[in-house]
Amino acid sequence: MGINNAFEISVSAIEANRLALEVINSNIANIDSTRSLDGGPYRRRFVLMEENPLEFSKILSKEQARYGLNSSGGVTAKIMEDSAPFQKVYNPSHPDADSRGYVSMPNVDLAKEMVDLVEKSKLYEANITAFNATKKMATDTLSIQ
Questions:
Q1: d(CA 17, CA 77)
Q2: Cβ(3)–Cβ(9) under 8 Å?
Q3: Is the model's pLDDT at 28 over the cut of 90?
Q4: Percent of all residues in the chain with a pLDDT value above 70, rounded to a whole number
Q5: What is the mean pLDDT of the segment spanning 66-81?
Q6: Distance between CA 7 and CA 130 in Å, rounded?
Q7: How far from 83 is each of 15, 31, 106, CA to CA, in Å?
Q8: 19-26, long-range: CB within 8 Å, 24+ apart, which pairs?
Q9: How many domains does the chain have?
Q10: What band does 36 get if pLDDT is binned at 50, 70 and 90?
Q11: Whole domain around residue 96: which residue ranges?
Q12: pTM assigned to the model
């Protein structure tokens, strides 16, 4: 694995965690939204991260052609919707209340979102640290006399 691969892996993880932080912030901001563009209450979203493994055929073609590879490992991220049921709250005076007086509230749990927020921010910081360590190794290698 070359130094460029290490940079690409760190950058892909940084971008995935940044996306996850944005989604968590959106969930927290919409914790009381009973109306969404899709109709009904806001549905919690989360980021699904998957490994993008290095493949032998890609590495072989890279070495044969001697040019960079666009996706040489790291993390891919997709935004998914949580299928958990909505919470029902009795509030007959609410404009979105059903005929029995219950309002469907978003399936966002503030405690879970805060735990996820701390976890993703720590992962973001760890990947920044890994990127900086790789950068230092590269500059130290170039300064060897």
A1: 9
A2: no
A3: yes
A4: 82
A5: 65
A6: 9
A7: 25, 16, 11
A8: 19/47, 19/77, 19/79, 20/46, 20/47, 20/49, 20/77, 20/116, 20/120, 21/117, 21/120, 21/121, 21/124, 23/47, 23/79, 24/113, 24/116, 24/117, 24/120, 25/117
A9: 1
A10: confident
A11: 3-142
A12: 0.77
